[in-house]
Amino acid sequence: MTLATLALFIPACFALNIAPGPNNVLAFSNAARRGLLVGLAGGMGRMLPFAAMILLVGIGLGAVLAASETAFNAVKYAGAAYLVYVGWRMWRAKPQAEIYARSDEPVTTLIRRDFLIAIGNPKAIAIFTAFFPQFTDLTQPLAPQYALLGGLFLVLECLAVALYAGFGAGFQGLLTPNRLHNLNKGVGGFLIFSGLALALNERH
């Protein structure tokens, strides 16, 4: 793999990392409520699923999932249902008692939530399956190339988490109880919309 290839991969990959999907919006929301460090910690929940998906794609199982309509749909609908569930709870939370704004909610709960949202999105495997091969050299061993590309993706994903958490933390001091409630409803509505869009989106 050449430096020219990496120079193309890094900005293209980062564009995927910083897209305002459900995980990134949650990182922003967590940091806005609980501070930068909590936002960063919560956003790390996605790393294990993404690493596993990269590994699956690297050994060929990602292509199997991408080719199986039944398997793909099972994961898609489960992930969509979870997004709607989380979004509905956030939307319905009462002012000044939002379930996702509690200071006593364990950080492990935020990490687990990020983990479940990431693992319930089969589009990630589809992205890795379609995206990574464009930057590989088939005349060279694939395993080291996927390891490098996967490692870079995870590093850039951490940077995306830091950016969203940083922006969220910048709003922390501006959140009154009413604004916090509105933020909760806004994020909840976004998650519901994302879940419905995922469920209704036709596979390409």
From TrEMBL:
Gene: rhtB_1
Record bears the keyword Nucleotide-binding: no
This protein's GO CC annotations: plasma membrane
Membrane topology annotation: Multi-pass membrane protein
Molecular-function annotations in GO: amino acid transmembrane transporter activity
Top-level lineage group: Bacteria
Keyword field: Cell membrane, Membrane, Transmembrane, Transmembrane helix
Name of the protein in its database record: Homoserine/homoserine lactone efflux protein
Subcellular location: Cell membrane
Segments crossing the lipid bilayer: 47-67, 115-135, 147-171, 183-200
Keyword Translocase: no
